[in-house]
């Protein structure tokens, strides 16, 4: 009988992509998918190290799974546990020491070996080498019929922002060859995909070569894949401001397949804090970049990430962040209180900001960001918007689509709309999702 697997994914889109790939590899290798973790032979936890207490969450899940494993053993059944993702990379053998029921620990660049590990069951238990090239060469192209797909084009980061674990958990920057990305997008389009989101921890640093050109950066790559006829929308995430070049801005300006929405983290509006964070750009440079993009692409909307209460952040520094937010005006954003990630340079910094102050600052900042998001969304009321319908909704005859600016839209229809691009009129706005009528 086929062994079944269940993948639980924590965290970011890169992890979703890796989980999709492990899913495809396991199906290709004769395993089958279980509907939930309690009904499976193999539990795979794809972990994330970005959020606070990621490893605590993992160990509490492992505690539950090890009881489950013991009970299965009593009735003569096998149950394998694989920990993959960034916590696996960061903690390595420590996971095996703390929880003996774990069978394998597999870093993000070793996921291609999971089927082999599960079939032979006699390999070493920890696999955390940095093998980006080998990983991408071994991944299969999915034939799953999906309207919108995530495609990893780049992995790792050389920026070393002082608070971030990515350079340590995902390693040095690696860009996939253009031909491989083109083939994956082309295959996705053949299977009904109309939208791709190109992924990378530092996606705008993408650099490869192909077709006799030595240096192909993100703008050119978008131009190349946009030649795939039925592909209608191109997005990418996450970018560093220093890597946004004129070629990419021009691609947005002249290529209608480029969606007018850019996630461009700044983290803080204070030069002092940006320098402490090792972000390698100033507040002024960020604002100038936003203006340059806006001048060329007037309908571009921006989202960002903010860290509040970084060590040494004074009231004045925080005010500078608020001023920057008011000046730029973001369509949406992610914001968090700073918390130290073990092993990062920021974790050793002093001038720690008390939790109470961090929480108050975050509340204040989120109030402004939410107001901006609300104002941005309200500006679409009663307007005509083009949406791509990506999925069925939670209630009967409901469908969910996305606008070019990534806002979710609910529409009702008795016929199947998934995969359709429609013009709709925005009629209502509830908790940041739109409700619309087909025109
Ligand atoms: S650019 Fe992004 S991924 Fe790279 S170190 Fe900075 S925060 Fe982390």
Characterization of this structure:
This protein has 439 residues and is of the alpha/beta class. The protein has 3 domains: 4-132, Rossmann fold; 134-376, tm_1862 like domain (pyruvate-formate lyase- activating enzyme); 384-438, OB fold (Dihydrolipoamide Acetyltransferase, E2P) (Beta Barrel), CATH 2.40.50.140. Helix content is 35%, strand content 24%. The chain contains 14 helices and 21 strands. The strands form 6 sheets. It has a 6-stranded parallel beta sheet with strand order 2-1-3-4-5-6, sandwiched between helices. Strands 17-18-19-21-20 form a 5-stranded mixed barrel. Strands 7-10-13 form a 3-stranded parallel beta sheet, sandwiched between helices. Helix 9 runs parallel beside helix 10 and helix 13 (315-328) packs parallel to helix 14. The protein starts with a strand and ends with a strand. Bound molecules: iron/sulfur cluster (SF4). Iron/sulfur cluster binds next to helix 7.
Short structural summary:
This protein is of the alpha/beta class and 439 residues long. The chain has helices at 13-28, 54-74, 86-91, 93-98, 114-120, 132-138, 166-169, 178-190, 218-225, 246-254, 271-276, 283-296, 315-328, 355-378; strands at residues 4-9, 32-33, 42-47, 80-85, 104-106, 126-127, 148-152, 154-155, 174-175, 195-199, 207-210, 213-217, 233-237, 261-263, 301-308, 332-337, 384-392, 398-402, 408-412, 421-430, 433-438. The radius of gyration is 23 Å and the shape is globular.
* CATH class bucket of the largest domain: Alpha Beta
CATH A-level architecture of the largest domain: Alpha-Beta Horseshoe
Q: Tell me the number of strands.
A: 21
| Bound small-molecule species | iron/sulfur cluster
Q: Give average pLDDT, whole number.
A: 93
CATH homologous superfamily annotation of the largest domain = tm_1862 like domain
Label the structural class: alpha/beta
CA radius of gyration is 23 Å
Q: Which ranges are low-confidence, i.e. pLDDT below 50, for 5 or more consecutive residues? A: none
Helix % is: 25-40%
* % residues in beta strands: 15-25%
- The CATH topology of the largest domain corresponds to pyruvate-formate lyase- activating enzyme
Quickly count the domains: 3
Q: Between the first and last Cα atoms, what is the distance in angstroms?
A: 51 Å
Strand order of the largest sheet: 2-1-3-4-5-6
In one word, what is the shape? globular
Number of helices: 14
Q: Give the biggest sheet.
A: 6 strands, parallel
């Amino acid at each position: 009988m086929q062994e079944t697997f269940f993948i639980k994914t924590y965290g970011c889109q890169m992890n979703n992509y890796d989980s999709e790939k492990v899913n495809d590899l396991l199906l290709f290798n004769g395993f089958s998918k279980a509907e939930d973790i309690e009904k499976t032979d193999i539990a795979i936890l794809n972990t994330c190290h970005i959020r606070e207490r990621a490893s605590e969450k993992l160990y509490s899940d492992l505690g539950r799974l090890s009881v489950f494993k013991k009970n299965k053993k009593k009735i003569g059944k096998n149950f394998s546990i694989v920990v993959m993702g960034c916590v696996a990379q960061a903690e390595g053998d420590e996971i095996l020491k703390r929880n003996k029921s774990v069978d394998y620990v597999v870093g993000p660049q070793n996921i291609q070996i999971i089927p082999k590990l599960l079939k032979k069951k006699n390999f070493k238990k920890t696999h955390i080498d940095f093998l980006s090239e080998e990983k991408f060469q071994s991944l299969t192209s999915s034939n799953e019929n999906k309207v919108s797909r995530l495609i990893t084009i780049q992995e790792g980061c050389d920026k070393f922002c002082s608070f971030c674990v990515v350079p340590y958990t995902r390693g040095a920057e690696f860009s996939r060859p253009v031909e491989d990305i083109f083939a994956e997008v082309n295959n996705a389009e053949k299977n009904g995909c109309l939208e791709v989101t190109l992924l990378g921890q530092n996606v705008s640093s993408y650099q490869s070569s192909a077709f006799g050109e030595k240096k192909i950066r993100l703008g050119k790559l978008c131009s190349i894949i946009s030649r795939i006829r039925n592909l209608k929308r191109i997005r990418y995430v996450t970018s560093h401001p220093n890597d946004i070049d004129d070629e990419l801005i021009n691609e947005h300006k002249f290529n209608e397949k480029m969606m007018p929405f850019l996630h461009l983290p700044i983290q803080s509006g204070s030069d002092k804090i940006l320098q402490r964070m090792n972000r390698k750009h100033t507040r002024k440079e960020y604002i100038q970049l936003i203006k340059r993009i806006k001048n060329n692409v007037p309908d571009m909307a921006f989202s960002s990430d903010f860290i509040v209460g970084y060590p040494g952040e004074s009231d004045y520094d925080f005010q500078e962040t608020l001023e920057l937010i008011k000046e730029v005006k973001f369509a949406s954003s992610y914001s968090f209180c700073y918390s130290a990630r073990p092993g990062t340079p920021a974790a050793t910094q002093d001038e720690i900001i008390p939790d109470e102050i961090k929480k108050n600052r975050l509340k204040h900042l989120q109030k402004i960001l939410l107001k901006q998001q609300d104002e941005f969304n309200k500006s679409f009321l009663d307007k005509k918007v083009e949406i791509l319908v990506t999925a069925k909704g939670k209630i009967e005859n409901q469908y969910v689509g996305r606008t070019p600016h990534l806002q979710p839209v609910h529409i009702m229809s008795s016929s199947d709309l998934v995969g359709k691009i429609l013009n709709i009129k925005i009629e209502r706005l509830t908790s940041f999702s739109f409700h619309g009528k087909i025109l």
